[in-house]
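As a representative case, the lines below give one protein's residues and fold tokens.
***
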Amino acid sequence: MGDETAPQLVVGALISDPLGRIFVQRRSADRRLFPGCWDVVGGAVEDGETHHEALEREIAEETGWRLRRVLARVVHESWTADGVRHLESDYVVEVDGDLSSPTLEWDKHPEFAWVAPEDVSLLDENVRLGGGTFIKDMVTAGHDWLAASVRG
């Protein structure tokens, strides 16, 4: 039996700050998918939206910040949850706004952190919570890209 349904397109924003840290937020404990896990800003690409437009919307909705520029796509992979295949593209981005004070959707994301390369072990908590290493791997890919772009 073939998979007739197109995958759900998803974007993730690896929001970087001037110190090379990446923004993560904790999903609330009552979320259906990955409860209590650390996550990046992002979500589904809506019908008629480009990846860039979806990033812009998700960043504004989840943090109140404005997308300044997309630097690179660092992750492009497929995953399945609740029987739905997702095709995720994650981008290192810069934003405008007060980086110390995101306007979180507190009911969905009660906590946030800025993760430097040396702090990435914080994201190991996701494994214990059943979220696997996806977010840690994604954030590490973002850090690797940022480090290479500074050296390059």
Remarks:
- Helices lie at 51-63, 125-128, 134-151.
- The radius of gyration is 15 Å.
- The first strand starts at residue 8 and ends at 15.
